[in-house]
Amino acid sequence: MAKIICITGATSGIGRACAVKFAQDNHQLILIGRRTERLTALKADLESSTESKVHTVTLDVRDRSAVKQAFENLPESIKRIDVLINNAGLAAGRNSIDEGDVDDWDRMIDTNVKGLLYVSKSVMPGMVDRQSGHIFNIGSTAGKETYLNGNVYCASKHAVDSLTKAMRTDLLPHGIKVTGICPGLAETEFSIVRYHGDEDKAKSVYDGFTPLYGEDIAEIIHFASERPAHVCMNDIVITPTAQASSFYVNKS
Ligand code: NDP
Ligand code: 8X3
Questions:
Q1: Which of 202, 221, 248 is nearest to 91 (CA)?
Q2: Among 48, 51, 77, 211, which one is most buried in terms of CB atoms within 10 A?
Q3: Over its length of 252 residues, how does the chain's per-residue pLDDT go in tens digits?
């Protein structure tokens, strides 16, 4: 049956791959990101290649009132969101904590933690009313371990991990599934953003091994979303085969 699936951060990487994967099942998609041209191009691409209907929303998830308004203004026909994929997020900087840039800290905490909460706050009450729904929070291996110079990014993803458990607990009486997705090293635009546009430095993160790609993670989210009503996959850690943890990567 066609579901209504809302994906934040759909203009790139993991979020974009989720949009492509779910469109193949002809679900109705609500795609969110700041880059309008990319959203428009993706909508055109998906609507011409699948039966999926795509609604795009240009939105900065850090903007609390804009998030509230955007969800209130959704067309009635797509307000009943079945699946929310809280994916929008970023790392900014890779400095020792004493040398960290406070603007970078604000961006990460405001997007990864507060943005996820603002979006969830707009979606959860409807799921509670309907006594059904599935929320995916994209955490990270950085939310399970703290690595050198990962500091505030790791803290933001530990917060996501905690919020995932909190949502699962508080929403339990309402039959709402909450799944934490915790990828390791995935080659997307993530490192370009982290290194403030330095593409060579970003590329070098994935030298010497095969990383994950957005599609690998989208397939797993799709699989988890397709389990029967009585089955919830709670917490999924996915790394490249060459990665054992945040500390051990087998580079050739
Ligand atoms: P990308 O940089 O490729 O994609 C990030 C997406 O987030 C973009 O679509 C971007 O859209 C969106 N985004 C960022 N800030 C905002 C904002 N303020 N408001 C709305 N959308 C925003 O990276 P990934 O696909 O890798 O990252 C997706 C998620 O996966 C993140 O939460 C990241 O922390 C997590 N993750 C990534 C890993 C990796 O190694 N790549 C591993 C583990 C977790 P736009 O710029 O158009 O707004
Ligand atoms: C992204 C993976 O190892 O760069 O969350 O933190 S890592």
A1: 202
A2: 211
A3: 899 999 999 999 999 999 999 999 999 999 999 999 999 999 999 999 999 999 999 999 999 999 999 999 999 999 999 999 999 999 999 999 999 999 999 999 999 999 999 999 999 999 999 999 999 999 999 999 999 999 999 999 999 999 999 999 999 999 999 999 999 999 999 999 999 999 999 999 999 999 999 999 999 999 999 999 999 999 999 999 999 999 999 999
| Ligand minimally distant from the alpha carbon of residue 137 | 1
| Rounded CA Rg of the chain | 17
Burial of 152 from C-beta contacts in 10 A (0-12 / 13-18 / 19+): buried
d(CA 30, CA 191): 26
First and final C-alpha spacing in the chain: 45
Closest-CA residue, ligand 1 atom 32, reads 89
Query: What's the 33 CA to ligand 1 centre distance in angstroms?
Result: 9
